[in-house]
Amino acid sequence: MKAVKVKKVSFFSVLFLSITLISVVLFCLSFCSYIKQRNLEFENYLEDRNYHILVTGDYENQLFLRQVFQGAESISSDYNSIVELYVPQSYAQNVSLQELFDYASFANADAVIAFFSQNEDLDDIVIPIKKDAIPIPLITIGTYHPQIPQVAYIGINYSEMGKKTAEEAAAFAGKDGLVFLLQGEVGSVSQNSNFLNSFSSGFSKEETSVRAVHVVDQVLHEQELIQNYNLKEDDRVVFITLNEMAAVQASQILSAYTSIHTDIICVGNSEITESLFERHAISEIISVDPEKIGISAIKEIFEYLALRHSNNYITAELKVRKAGK
Length: 325
Description:
Number of helices: 9
Strand content: 15-25%
Largest sheet: 6 strands, parallel
Number of strands: 12
Shape: globular
CATH class of the largest domain: Alpha Beta
CATH topology of the largest domain: Rossmann fold
């Protein structure tokens, strides 16, 4: 019979394996203890906060709502409160405003900051209530709907936005430049008379050196633009878009321009326009400042909780961002 060789294991190998095993066990115990401590600290953090504020809205506006949430959360500790962001994770998971309100009632929130879209279906909408059937204070953002019982609405001053857009467009166009306002599809900004009147008035001042301002439905290809408006090489042209679809179409067409210097100013912001902005396809974004909205909303909520009154309409601050800055 053939002898079976038995491989000897040295003392040092056994010692090394033992030390390694003990180290792994100690690390696991230490890590578990750390996680348990962190969870306990977080639970205590929640228990120490006396107010629960909910920020909610549909998936389409989740970028904006996330920034509102960040602003609200930044001062939440000043008011002994915790802020929760409750937004669907995708279009597939999108739910109705009523379902979002139902969640606020279920969570027994102390106040709600809710985004209302322009075409919101408000038939038979029931605002959120606490467990004792008392209505939960509601701050609305987005589109103003007067039929909704709300503590306050934080919205856009369209006259101020029109004026600021004209100032920025004139600065980009420079002397003898052309400005094109792309109305595109119907939207809250493009159909707002205060915005359009204030925008037009901004170019009627004597100090404005812009050659002309045109309101158009779409961007022309370069040669058509040169011929129709008698442009020369290196002339500056500024396109102002009022919705994301117009911004996408303008950026696609202008990417093929070779002779004329062009800039796109986008009024309003979304995930799509943010992506274009990051790629420098858009020169500037003019929008409300969502973080400042979150801060204002928290202040209004606690003014209402303390005094049972607040400002009915609050103007959101504007935010201007230039590409590369």
